Amino acid sequence: MRTFVAFLLLYLLFLVQASVNPWWPDLVLLGLIAISLHETRLTSALAGAFAGLCLDMTNPAFAGTSLFALAVTGYGVAALRTLFYRARWATLLFVLMALTLKWTALALFGPGLPGLAPLLVSSVLTMTLAPLVELGLARFLYPGWQPA
Amino acid sequence: MAKRLVTAGQDRIAWLVILLGFALLLLPHRLRLAATQPFQSLLLAPLRLGTAVSQSLRDSRTENERLSLLAAELSVDNARLESASQTAGPEPLVGLALTRAPVISRDLATFERWLVISRGTRHGIGPGAPVITADGVCGKVIVCGPHQSLVQTLLAPESRVAVLNLRSRVPALARADHSGRLVLDYAPKESDFKVGDTVVTAGLGTVFPKGLRIGEVIAVPDRPEALFKPVTIRPFADISRVEQVFVIHLPEAGGSENGPGWLENTGPPEVSIPDQPPGQ
């Protein structure tokens, strides 16, 4: 049930993300990282693939770009969290890596980068919101959980 | 041991998902489009529905504004014809112009005594201009700034409007009764007012043209002791909720060179006092 709610939440975040301009923070990425910090590697990879598939539907000619990037992000966060996830601020590291992966995938395989200004603004906003989103989602979906 | 096997199996599936994503990247755009077509309609359905609803709401609002303007124009047109039929003269020419004005503030105590609209002298509006809605008369402009105007509504305690029963042609004076209704003063005791009668402006003052719809008679209590007939009217315009109004631009007093103006009452009557004969 919790996994279903997590997927539903990702879908809702996608609906919001698809309705706003590229200057906004990447809500889907934030949601995925927050979920991957608590779920198994398989669930995280599937959640990333699902969220990426949703995002790819807005630009189906480049389908696979977000799917691949977010699936790797979900799996990577779930796999690496035991190595260097020691406090909530460490979420920023994952967000930084995920953003790098996402922008690289978009530049190499996707429609290209949105432009320097929206890229920077969106990235900074995403980084700024990351601890809050992680904290909020952890309390909502995984109450009682504490970082190792 | 079993847990490790399960974890390893899960890892393989996760890697398979990632590899599938990567394989999708290698496909030509045409094949990617074909592969994602079934998912597209399913995943984007809520977005498309939201867009359709939003567009529908926008269209409805635009259509509503257009119809409101049309209704207001027809209301004024009706008043013009009413005026023409009463004077039995040639149909007056009309310099009809309506200015749509959003309501940006209102009387916070009752929401219905005065309004502020976002149109002023820069838009050709002046003090005394009648203000209507698509349903009926709303009030009149009393103070104008360059971009804003203050409208005194029919329900303001100071408001008085000369009215006419559309059916029986009985004139009277309408004023607010502090409960969102209008009451008639000086309606003769034997005058013909019935519940359901429509009351329109009489065109006797210097503000409202004749024939604009004001309200409906909702009560004519029988009071033998009263000097005049107590008639209660419910205004057609829902003044406490109105969000946009229309200001009527009256033609200049005196009419145009092609004929008389549509109102005989747009300016005070010119009264000349003859000189007294010498010696008196």
Structure, briefly:
With 148 residues, chain A is an all-alpha fold. Chain A has 6 helices and no strands. Among the domains of chain B are: 42 residues, no CATH class; 150 residues, Rod shape-determining protein MreC, domain 1 (Thrombin, subunit H, Beta Barrel), CATH 2.40.10.
Order of helices and strands of chain B: HHHEEEEEEEEEEEE
User: Which stretches of chain B are poorly predicted, pLDDT < 50 over at least 5 residues?
Assistant: 89-93, 253-274, 276-280
CATH architectural label of the domain at 99-248 in chain B: Beta Barrel
Q: Percent of residues of chain B in helical segments? A: 25-40%
Helicity of chain A, as a percent range: over 70%
Major protein interface: A-B, 30 and 28 residues
CATH superfamily of the domain at 99-248 in chain B: Rod shape-determining protein MreC, domain 1
Q: Could you give a short account of the major beta sheet of chain B? A: 6 strands, antiparallel, barrel
Task: Quickly name the level 1 CATH class of the domain at 99-248 in chain B.
Answer: Mainly Beta
What is the count of β-strands of chain A? 0
Number of helical elements of chain A: 6
Main beta sheet strand tally, sense and closure of chain A:
none
Which range does the strand content of chain B fall in?
15-25%
Integer-rounded radius of gyration of chain B: 32 Å
Q: Which structural class do you get from the secondary structure elements of chain A?
A: mainly alpha
What is the fold named in CATH at topology level of the domain at 99-248 in chain B?
A: Thrombin, subunit H
The end-to-end span of chain A amounts to 24 Å
Encode the helix/strand succession of chain A as letters: HHHHHH
Mean pLDDT of chain A: 85
Fraction in beta strands of chain A: under 5%
Highest CATH level, the class of chain A? Mainly Alpha
Properties at a glance:
heterodimer, A: 148 residues, mainly alpha, Arp2/3 complex 21 kDa subunit ARPC3, globular, B: 280 residues, alpha+beta, Thrombin, subunit H, six-stranded antiparallel barrel, 3 helices, 12 strands, 30% helix
